[in-house]
Amino acid sequence: MEIIFLGSGAGELWPSVFCNCGACKTAIAERGKHVRIGSCLLVERKYLFDIPPNVNLAAIQRGISLAEVTHLFVTHSHQDHLDPCVLAATGRVDGPPLHLYCNRRVAELLPVYQQFNRFFDPERLNLHINVLEPFDTVGCEEDEFVLTALAADHDTTGGEEPLIYIFEHGGKTILYACDTGWFPDRTWQEIEKRQYDVVVLDCTCHELQECRHGHLSTAPFLEIRQRFEKEGLLKSGSRFIAQHISHGHQGDDLSHEQLVARFAQHGVEVAHDGMVLNT
Ligand SMILES: [Zn+2]
Ligand SMILES: [Zn+2]
Ligand SMILES: [Zn+2]
Questions:
Q1: Nearest ligand (C-alpha, residue 24)
Q2: What is the set of domains in the chain, with CATH numbers?
Q3: From ligand 2's centre to the CA of 20, what distance in Å?
Q4: Along the 279 residues of the chain, how does pLDDT read in single tens digits?
Q5: Interatomic CA distance for residues 240 and 169, integer angstroms
Q6: Considering every ligand atom, which ligand is closest to the CA of 76?
């Protein structure tokens, strides 16, 4: 299974617009792995997890087309996970169905966006919105995938229930878990029913500040990693990835290379934009 990290950053993106901190200056000067758009995975070129700003440009710059995407799995309404401008700007009209899976809050907010931007037209886009409640499972026989939505520990403003996902396809199992803090008990129960080839886990706060709720910092991230090992949830040859990497605007942020060195000793890889996994 091919997994492409089109984005690996957090909400403020890296570099951040209008930000003059040291980390942003370095990112603009050196680019490469210093640059992170919002977190986003492209799986088998067909399945897109979250739609951050600039996702199309990020794909183009890596020679990747999003034309084959048929399914969009959105975790929650925050702007780094769902940019309706991307959907409004598409040239694909009257094409094959585009299946969007999301929570109720996202499904309610998207039609409202049409009032703001008349170019967002779900009908012309042939967009089919499927609302998921936490712990719903949906399968698509044609595409042979099973998607299970789990409850995240994240922002519940407006009654939103942010989701994380287990994605099963072709004998492979991925956990896509950002944005979230420590998993709620029922989410753990569901996670522990399976073994994983790839775990992509929120590590927004890494070394910046201690964080167990809403997002994760290094210590609770590694506690989760240990629990996966202890409970035998990782298949042989599995990959465990830190994703949704933020910067603190303090000018003393760890570079990508420093984060890689920090996590390598724990068997954890740090995502960067453009990272490709073949599992
Ligand atoms: Zn986010
Ligand atoms: Zn900055
Ligand atoms: Zn969020």
A1: 2
A2: 2-278 (3.60.15.10)
A3: 6
A4: 999 999 999 998 899 999 988 889 989 999 999 999 999 999 999 999 999 999 999 999 999 999 999 999 999 999 999 999 999 988 887 788 999 999 999 999 999 998 999 889 998 899 999 999 999 999 977 778 999 999 999 999 999 999 999 999 999 999 999 999 999 999 999 999 999 999 999 999 998 889 999 999 999 999 999 999 999 999 999 999 999 999 887 767 888 999 999 999 999 999 999 999 999
A5: 18
A6: 3
